[in-house]
Amino acid sequence: MKPPLFEYRAPRSLKDAIALLAGDSGAMVLAGGQSLIPALNMRLASPSRLVDIQHIEGLKGISVQDGRIVVKAMTRHRQLELSEAAHRANPLIREAMAHVAHVPIRNRGTVVGSLCHADAAAEMPMVLLATDGSVVAEGPRGRREIAAEDFFQFHMTTTREPDEIITEARFSVLPAGAGWAFEEFTRRHGDYAIAAVAAIVDRTSGHVSLAACGISSRPVRLRQSEEIIAKGGLVPDVLKAAGEAAKEAVTAPDDMHASTDYRRHLLAGLVRRAVEKAASRTK
Amino acid sequence: MNRGTIRPKPQAISIDPKVAVNLSVNGETVSAEVSVRMLLSDFLRHELGLTGTHVGCEHGVCGACTVIIDGVAARSCLTFAVQAEGTNVRTIESVADDDGSLHPLQEAFRNCHALQCGYCTPGMIMNILSNLESDMPMDLSEEGIRVMLSGNLCRCTGYQNIVAAVRQAADALASR
Amino acid sequence: MSTRAFGSRIQRNIDPQLLRGEGSFVDDIPLANALHVAFVRSPFARARINSIDVTAACTHPGVAAVYTCDNIGDLDLELPLLIPHSSMTDARTQRPLARGDVYYVGQTVAMVVAVDRYTAEDAAALVDVDYDPLEVEIDLEKAILDGSPLVHPTHPNNIAAHLVQVSGNPDRAIAEAEHVTRVRVQVDRSTAAAMECRAVAAIFDRVTGELTVWDGTQAPLSVRGGLASILNIDEDKVRVIAPNVGGGFGQKVLLFYPDELLVPFAARHLGRPVKYIEDRRENFVGSTQERTQIHTIELYAKKTGEVLALRDSFLHDTGAFIPYGIAVAQVASTSIAGPYRIPNIWVEFKAVYTPTVPVTPYRGCGRPHACFAIERAMDQLADDLGLDRFEIRRRNLIGDDEFPKLREGLLFADGLPVSLDSGQYHKALEMLHDKLDVANFAAEQQKAREAGRHLGLGMAFYVEGTGLGPYEGGHIKIHPITGKVYVNTGLTSQGQGHDTVFAQIVSDQLGVKVEDVILVEGDTKAFDWGVATFASRAAVVSGNAIHKSALIVRNKTLTAAANMLEASADDIELRDGAAWVKGTDRQVSLAAVATATNPLRYAFNESAKAATQFAPASRHDGPALGEGQAPGLEATDYYSPPCATWAYGVHGAILEVDPEICSVKVRRYVCIHDCGNMINPMIVEGQVMGGIAQGIGGAMYERIEFDTDGNMINANFVDFLVPYATEVPQVEILHLETPSPLNPLGVKGVGEAGCIPVGAVIASGIDDALRPFGAAPFQHIPITPSMIYAAVTGG
């Protein structure tokens, strides 16, 4: 399990990086490498060129501004997890982050890299979706913001163009007084989710945000469940109904870790638990 | 085989493009030309002769190859040597004293019979050590230790004695 | 004598080296200019090979050679059938490189040797093989049906072996029975997943004609014998070294894997060191696996629960080949009655070829399967008769006074009768009952149920035939300079701590510190005779051989020291590295004794002066060595067990099932264990805890998944779920020590014990927890969340 040969480039500027991506249709971005390098070692990917973005100025750091937590492309999972500013702004992030693989992986892997990898069972894409977040793409045609809802297309597929680099992710700050929760089931600690749910409950506005991963070909917002709760309120029967409604969103076929029927059952339970917990944390 | 067959001197190294990498390994400055695709694990083991870092899966699950990069634990099999440019890498070989005396964590492993075949041990030690040396408080509850160890597979011990060793090492270091 | 080392919790000699990262595993051995191997492997479970084109691979820069079946000379053969048995006809084994046909995904088709592994993998991808895929049937029960695609055209219905064994008179007992319980149980395919994959490196020295092979094997002596035979070299010209080995668990006892022959061959052919370091994916698709068996077991009982007879018929998946013979199935079939008296047994198996990775022993070797079958059946019988699970066992366990319990008619995997030698089964059961506080559990369970929580208690008993022959040996020598004791044996260790437990045995006899006893094993130059490390046999077989050798050296030492100290041998004691006249301060170091027993010409140190030909201590009335005398303090002896010695134990757990998530959390896990006299309880517990962790894997996590075409779809650690620390419970262990009457040390094996009953314990516990749901019992492991979902929803 050794990687195939590639051309290695380590540009110092974003402009150069974009040019290097644009100049080779087989080029890929190398950030933390925690998803890409396993794929290379297994020879599931064979990029002709790797553009290592770690030496580019201005791609590091976390800031909280205008109701958004801005996470630059080379920010490691662990940096975001430990960021007190980010935690104050939205505690859902740290809670979810504890479930992303293991600390040594989080020490190297980047948040934006995980979003771009877009594994359908990965936690951070779901969190971006639950917080109505977005990513910023920069390419030869300029800079654009892509809403999470539009970014994740399919398992390991996003709307990023091959010559674009996602320079930052933007998670929304938790509304004042809102509660949050993250519920997941994996067979082993740190594995990809069999199913996971992120919940944000805002009693002030009556808004409920629910997203799930592991159940479909991409992370999904559980709109129907959100509406049921918005209409019916945070009472046990409604939460149960919201869980039942969430089952509709499960499209993942039977696989070696879970049958579709079991995933539906599981998701319903996780939705109920997540909303209950989030509601209990509202102020 | 014909005894008269010519035996041309075989090629010694691959024709992969090379790239310069400069880093610090166990406190020593290293400047080397490496294949662009060489994994840090292979670089440490086969270019620098630091074979204490083991390779168990090469896809990031088993943790046997864990080293400390810039103070934090990382998988050397999921890092290209060239990505380690400018970093400070520590391997298992740096943990004991120069005279071979064991670090309290290593002592605790021995006391608690926390290793059997010893293959996963260097990765375990480096992961635990990064936590022991960190500024952040460690969760020394049973569950907390197990979560810390998750990410390192051991096939021999059943982990129980490793949990005990972590606790013993943390106590020993705290009392120093 | 100071404190006895035997029986003490002594830290391991090997640990500092391993902890400092100074271990020496195969890939750690620096071999200048080594070439590296990658294999081209079959992508089809069954196919005809039309052609293999290696042109592009051969010309790839950095490639030294590409081998196929056409250019490996004498190695183009069917590999040996290691353990022949009359139940097999025309047993099929693999060829090092496929000729004509491939039989499983992962089978080796071509071997590329290149300057590094990266380049070798590049070139392997350039080998162009043209296949015609053939039909396959992966399902074990369908594979034996008429008309199913055949793995080998030579074997109708894919039957590789068929064996019936009978003990007592089952027909008569069945006719007398008042009740029959019948269950079908299944254990799925798994793999050892040692942390170090397999590895082989070789150097051929053209000048001396010597071949040196480093092999991460459990059987270096056997590998040497086979290599010498197949490569047609004298055994003395072949040296096989198993250095530190990163776990074995049975997978590394098989010989030969293709690489074990091809790497030495290539090293000789190319005149350069050659290395093959198996990667994790190859370990999944290319190294042997175990476990799938489907049993239909029937217990014929009286209404009291006393089991009169047992009938069991099972299918055993042997994969595409059967190089290790029927060992796994045979162990399962002869362990099927477990710890119970059951006087009448009829047991049958069919070993079935499937187009999958071949099957050879993995820790447990048939015992976990047999235990799962009998223990699930016992639980069911208890249920059927309205008895408690402990009570049904009390009524059937062999009593202390019934040993040895011969199961006449059953032959174990060593070809010898099954005879359980000793134990305190009833006491063990009661210890578990107490430790788990079973008496109060029902109330606790009821209370939890009222609060919506589902607790269950699971338990299972097991026996383990250990310490199989044929034999092992031990050589012991006290070194004249240092007084350190060197012990050589033909085994190899993969983490079991041989270097410490064998040192403990020797330490007591020779009065030296455990750390002054140095074990050399895993090197055919260190000891010439023996078999391998497998079947929980090292402590029993090598341990007793070393013990016997130590007794001889002890006597030699006492005699020599008595001469030197001018005392009677009866008055000499050995302690603290010296021989002492009892009750005095007169002593001579073992180094000096060892030197004195070696008549010298040259005085190279103080002790040596006393041993030279002109020294007063030397004999001056004839040759320095008398007829029949040998210099030094050394001895070699062997131990060959009369039959297996049977360890046993009983495990119990309290677990909680969450029916909403379908998860299982083990809250307590208790193990009562008896492996006879313990040499080092710390190491025994380590073996048991590690075994239980593997058992937890087999009970709930680890399952090799094949699709219907025979592709292994989880050949990685992402999807083949080896448990982390977070999935393994804390284990509470209590020991019993019932000595084995069969060997001088009274020891029994412990290597495999832990893993055997865990599947049955967990299934039993989940059944108990989910009783209110009216679900059918769990008779199939591993138990997955989807299976729990089906049980709680009646789906």
What does this 3D model show about the protein?
Chain A: It comes from Aminobacter niigataensis. Chain A: Keywords: FAD, Flavoprotein, Oxidoreductase. Chain A: This is Carbon-monoxide dehydrogenase medium subunit. Chain A: InterPro entries: CO_DH_flav_C (IPR005107), CO_DH_flav_C_dom_sf (IPR036683), Diverse_Substr_Oxidored (IPR051312), FAD-bd_PCMH (IPR016166), FAD-bd_PCMH-like_sf (IPR036318), FAD-bd_PCMH_sub1 (IPR016167), FAD-bd_PCMH_sub2 (IPR016169), Mopterin_DH_FAD-bd (IPR002346). The complex is a heterotrimer of chains A (283), B (176) and C (795). A five-stranded antiparallel β-sheet of chain A has the order 4-5-10-6-7. A four-stranded antiparallel β-sheet of chain A has the order 11-12-13-14, with helices on both faces. A three-stranded parallel β-sheet of chain A has the order 1-3-2, covered by helices on one side. In chain A, 36% of the residues lie in helices and 24% in strands. Chain A has 283 residues and is α+β, with helices and mostly antiparallel strands. In chain A, α10 runs antiparallel to α11 and α11 packs antiparallel against α12. Chain B is an alpha+beta fold and 176 residues long. Chain B folds into two domains: 77 residues, Beta-grasp domain (Ubiquitin-like (UB roll), Roll), CATH 3.10.20.30; 71 residues, DNA polymerase, domain 1 (Orthogonal Bundle). A five-stranded mixed β-sheet of chain B has the order 2-1-5-3-4, covered by helices on one side. In chain B, α2 packs across α5. The model of chain B has no long low-confidence stretch (mean pLDDT 95). Chain C contains 20 helices and 29 strands. In chain C, the strands form seven sheets. Chain C has a seven-stranded mixed β-sheet with strand order 3-5-1-12-9-10-11. Chain C has a six-stranded mixed β-sheet with strand order 7-15-14-13-8-29, sandwiched between helices. Chain C has a four-stranded mixed β-sheet with strand order 18-26-27-28, with helices on both faces. The longest helix of chain C is centred in the last third of the chain and has 28 residues. The model of chain C has no long low-confidence stretch (mean pLDDT 96).
